[in-house]
Design brief:
17 helices; 3% strand; globular; mainly alpha; Na+/H+ antiporter like fold; 2 domains; two-stranded antiparallel sheet
């Protein structure tokens, strides 16, 4: 009985973690938990914990930072590395291959960044808060896709592909915005050092070095140099991703040929003397070749992405959400700081869908980009509404945009409200649209 129950529980967990919506659900749970704890009697433990210093002391010098900075600057670099790998994969093999294929979602992402940025900037222009214009520009791919997956058949497959591709292009735009506008105390010496390290990484790629280890070691050095330039260090992770090789060490056809020509005959041959219980030296050599070859035949970029993705989805992002979503709602929240709240909420909830729909519609009419036939303009509007879920990247930018806790806390609370509204309104819109479309189909029959 106990074993059956245990297997049932493990199968439930296994199916959950293999679900595409799992990362978004876990992120939401951690964010909600952070809000509950931040507004509970034990809230001081929560805030004090993340401000604790972690590092080593050499003589009188402390080398390290707070747990909050370790998470936002170091751990999130792994998240940005995966984002960079996803962007490179999409440009090489996916929905961003070639101008015609890439133009529609890229222009959608561009519109979804410009419109919210303009709304926020127009409301806060000339105030100390105008620097937060990058906050409503981002789309949270985990949350937005998670909502779409929960909607199931109500959302066309082509629309899911469109939203994922849009979010990838959106991430690239957000990375550029962070690099250009959220840099402080720029150091030319460290910047030159960063370019040298990046040049070595590019050289490794050009020389067809396919082992991942040298890239990761140099990636750590690149992170240190970029961190000291004043540019946010997560940019180093994206730059590293673009240098990761695509060619596998072993050609797939060669691997398949060797396995089929030697593996099958040797293992089918009966060894009467050993009764097939023990493998002979030739069989062991073939097995070792298969074990090593199965790793080397994989694309290094995809292998690294596949290895790191679960850590990002089920550890780093939920931890980031738990560490950053905790905002104590009380007298400490000043809702009257310029128009931060209004700018973020209007930017994400209104600006995102308007920007995405208007840019794609205009470019379609001008024959710059072609809308997929299986996706309607109503679908595009619904996806644009879900694009207003800007949780992870928006919170990340808010930490860079403001130096005071009052503005940062107000921005985070606004992001939570706006993302929730965008998720609810987008879901309801797509559900109603699906029911109307089905009724229309039934009436035609």
């Amino acid at each position: 009985m106990f074993i059956k129950s245990f297997h049932k529980i493990t199968s439930i967990f296994s199916s959950f973690f293999h679900n595409e919506a799992a990362g978004g659900i876990l992120l939401f749970i951690c964010a909600l938990l952070a809000m509950i704890i931040a507004n509970s009697p034990i809230s001081h433990y929560y805030f004090e914990f993340w401000e604790m210093d972690f590092g080593i002391t050499i003589g009188e010098k402390f080398i390290g930072m707070s747990l909050h900075h370790w998470l936002n600057d170091v751990f999130m670099s792994i998240f940005f590395l995966i984002v960079g790998l996803e962007i490179k994969r999409e440009f090489l093999f996916g929905e961003l291959v070639g101008f015609k294929k890439a133009a529609f979602p890229v222009l959608a992402a561009l519109g979804g960044m410009i419109a919210p940025g303009i709304i926020y900037f127009a409301l806060n222009m000339g105030t100390p808060s105008q620097n937060g214009f990058g906050i409503p520009m981002a789309t949270d791919i985990a949350f937005a896709l998670g909502v779409m997956m929960l909607l199931g058949k109500r959302v066309p497959v082509a629309l899911k592909v469109f939203l994922v591709t849009l979010a990838v292009a959106d991430d690239l735009g957000a990375i550029i915005v962070i690099g250009l506008f959220y840099t402080s105390n720029f150091s030319i010496i460290w910047f030159i050092a960063s370019l040298i390290v990046l040049g070595i990484l590019i050289l490794l790629n050009k020389k067809d070095i396919r082992a991942i280890a040298p890239y990761l070691i140099l990636g750590v050095i690149l992170w240190i140099t970029v961190h000291n330039t004043g540019i946010h260090a997560t940019i180093a992770a994206v730059a590293l991703a673009f240098t990761i090789p695509v060619k596998p060490k072993l050609d797939s056809e060669e691997f398949a040929s060797k396995v089929s020509s030697s593996f099958v005959p040797l293992f089918l041959a009966k060894d009467k003397e050993r009764n097939n219980l023990l493998l002979n030296s030739s069989q062991l050599d073939i097995l070792n070749f298969i074990i090593k070859g199965s790793k080397n035949v994989q694309n290094p970029l995809l292998r690294l992405e596949h290895t790191l993705a679960p850590w990002s989805s089920f550890f780093i992002m939920p931890l980031f959400g738990f560490a950053n979503a905790g905002v104590a709602i009380g007298d400490n929240i000043n809702f009257a700081i310029d128009h931060i709240m209004l700018g973020i909420i209007l930017g994400l909830v209104i600006g995102k869908p308007i920007g995405i729909l208007s840019f794609t519609f205009l470019c379609h009419k001008l024959n710059i980009a072609q809308k997929p036939d299986s996706v309607s303009w109503i679908n595009i509007l619904g996806a644009g509404m879900l694009g207003g879920i800007g949780f992870t990247m928006s919170i990340f930018v808010s930490n860079l945009a403001f130096s005071d806790h009052l503005s940062t806390d107000l921005a985070k609370l606004s992001i939570l409200i706006a993302s929730s509204l965008a998720g609810i309104l987008g879901s309801l819109f797509l559900i109603i649209e699906y029911k109307i479309e089905n009724k229309h189909k039934d009436s035609k029959k």
